[in-house]
């Protein structure tokens, strides 16, 4: 294949992508103006592509920068929220401790009031007993004190009655005891009771 054939082949190859009317009838002599126009069109397309590529890269870089800035702002916001949450936790913890101290103070004051109420009723109570009757309510504490006092009074009365029955002097009413038998009683209280019941023997 000679040089002329090579040129002819190349021109025929390019002619496939061009308008058939843009070339001469002779494939060896293409119109110079049409080829120059095609070259200019090709160059313009590359410039446009480069411009669009540059614009797209710029847009993406701006978007990344915006996302980065938003991420920084979000991180700062989260850090601030965490700090606020920590402050809120510390505040709630301190408030809980203060409430506990107030409750303990109120219970101690209530214990003192309950002890005074028992003392007014001449009842000496232990700390364990106070723990049972004292509550965080003044009304409930007073009711507990009254109820316990009533129970203790009933127990004391019952015990006293039992003791009196056990220690009560024997009856020495007119039962045939002589004066000498009464005087022979060794227990002073029993002897005096027997004398009181049999005064007719000592008149």
Describe this structure in words.
This protein has helices at residues 3-15, 32-120, 127-133, 138-167, 179-183, 188-197. It has a domain at 170-203. It is mainly alpha-helical. The protein is built from 6 helices and no strands.
Q: If helices are DSSP runs of H or I spanning 4 or more residues, what is the number of helices?
A: 6
Shape: rod-shaped
Overall pLDDT metric? 73
What composes the largest sheet? none
Please tag this protein with its features.
single chain, disordered N terminus
Give a brief outline of the structure.
This protein has 203 residues and is an all-alpha fold. The protein has 6 helices and no strands.
Strand and helix layout:
Layout: H1 3-15, H2 32-120, H3 127-133, H4 138-167, H5 179-183, H6 188-197
């Amino acid at each position: 294949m000679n040089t002329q054939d090579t040129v002819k082949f190349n021109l025929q190859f390019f002619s496939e992508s061009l308008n058939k009317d843009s070339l001469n009838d002779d494939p060896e002599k293409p119109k110079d103006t049409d080829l120059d126009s095609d070259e200019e069109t090709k160059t313009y397309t590359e410039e446009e592509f480069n411009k669009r590529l540059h614009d797209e890269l710029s847009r993406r870089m701006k978007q990344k920068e915006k996302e980065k800035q938003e991420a920084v702002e979000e991180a700062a916001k989260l850090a601030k929220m965490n700090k606020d949450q920590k402050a809120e936790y510390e505040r709630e913890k301190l408030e809980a401790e203060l409430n506990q101290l107030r409750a303990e103070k109120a219970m101690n004051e209530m214990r003192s009031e309950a002890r005074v109420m028992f003392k007014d009723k001449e009842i000496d109570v232990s700390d364990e007993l106070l723990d049972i009757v004292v509550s965080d309510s003044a009304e409930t504490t007073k009711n507990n004190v009254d109820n316990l006092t009533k129970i203790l009074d009933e127990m004391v009365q019952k015990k006293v009655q039992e003791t009196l029955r056990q220690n009560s002097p024997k009856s020495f009413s007119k039962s045939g005891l002589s004066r000498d038998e009464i005087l022979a009683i060794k227990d002073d209280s029993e002897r005096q009771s027997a004398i009181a019941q049999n005064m007719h023997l000592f008149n």
